[in-house]
Amino acid sequence: MKKERFSETQIVAILQQQASGQNVAQIVREHGLSEATFYKWKSKYAGASVAELTRLKQLEEENRKLRQMFADLSLENQAIEEILRKM
């Protein structure tokens, strides 16, 4: 997987530059971005704070772990049912 150049904290800071009144063209030039990337970030992270993004990452990780646990238990349950049917 490709490593991202900017962390979510940096992205939020870059987006806040526009909110403080800087021109998009200046921001893009300063950070070496394309305007498309800037507007994609803006649609994805609009109004989000660093704390909210951190919490979102924690919830996504917890959700991933719970899904994995469910998949493991479901597989285990199917195996037990299979064994019981053969008896």
UniProtKB/TrEMBL annotation:
Coiled coil recorded as keyword: yes
Keyword Coiled coil tagged: yes
InterPro entries with a match to the protein in the record: Homeodomain-like_sf, Transposase_8, Transposase_8_domain
Record key words, sorted: Coiled coil, Plasmid
Coiled-coil regions listed in the entry: 49-76
Top-rank lineage group of the source organism: Bacteria
Name this polypeptide is given: Transposase
